[in-house]
Specification:
The structure is a single chain. Helices cover 12% and strands 28% of the residues. By secondary structure, the protein is an alpha+beta fold. The chain has a single domain, classed as GroES chaperonin (10 Kd Chaperonin, Protein Cpn10, Chain O), CATH 2.30.33. The strands form two sheets. The protein has a six-stranded antiparallel sheet with strand order 6-7-2-4-5-8, with no helix packed on it. Strands 1-3 form a two-stranded antiparallel sheet. The longest helix has 9 residues. The protein is globular and about 50 Å long. It starts with a strand and ends in a 9-residue tail after the last strand.
Length: 121
């Protein structure tokens, strides 16, 4: 359902810097058509973006995973990882029509190999 995000330098320059224990996530783009070649309507693509459950960690606030009591085994993820989180987690925003999220460090539920094959149930 998703394709990997390709971020231009123009978009990267406009992104906010996460503060505190926030993580900046790039939500992968939703494919234009199904595997069978059927074009997806814009309303369905928008719903999939909004309720996405996977994204790539772009940057992390300096306080992420610093609380040894809450994270005794260390960080759940690092920059560059593909992570899974709840469907409507975080602050959603767009830069040049590309969706991003700011989520809390403890909102990461799993690290994935990539977005391929992952979709909401």
């Amino acid at each position: 359902m998703y394709t990997e995000a390709k971020l231009s330098k123009d978009i990267l320059d406009k992104l906010p810097e996460p503060k505190g224990y926030r993580i900046l996530i790039a939500v992968p783009d939703v494919e234009e058509k199904t595997k069978g070649g059927i074009l997806l309507p814009d309303s369905l693509k928008s719903k999939e973006e909004t309720a996405s459950i996977v994204g790539q960690v772009l940057s992390m606030g300096r306080d992420c995973y610093t609380d040894a009591d809450r994270f005794p085994d260390g960080p759940y993820c690092q920059e560059g990882d593909w992570v899974m989180f709840r469907a409507y987690t975080g602050t959603r925003f767009k830069v040049d029509k590309k969706e991003f999220r700011l989520i809390n460090d403890d909102s990461v539920e799993a690290v994935a190999k990539g977005p391929e094959g992952i979709e909401r149930a």
